[in-house]
Amino acid sequence: MKKVSIIAAAVAASLAAGSAFAGGTDVVKDGWDVHGYASMNSRLLNGRTVDTEFGKPDYKTAGTHGKSTNQVEFVVKKNTTHENGVWSLFNVRAEYGNGNSYAYTSEGAQKKNTDSQFEIKEAYIELGGIGFLGDDTSIWAGQRFLNRSAGLLSGEYWRQSSGVGAGLQTQLAGNTAGIAFVTADPDAGGAPSYSSECETTVKPVVDNFNPAEPEFDVKTGCDINKNEASERKTLSSLDFYYHGVDVGFGSLDFDFKYMRQAGVGSNANDGFGASITLNSSYYGLDGWSQTAIAYGKGVAQNRGVNFGGWSGGDDNAESIFFTTYGVLNISDNWQLGSELTYFAALDQLFGAEDLERYIVAVRPSYKVNDNLRLEMTGSYAHEEGKEGYFGGRTGDAVKSDYINLELAAAFTVNADYFGRPQIKPYVSHIIADDKASANLIGINDSKSETIFGVHAEIWF
Question: How far apart are alpha carbons 376 and 64 in whole angstroms?
Answer without folding.
Answer: 11
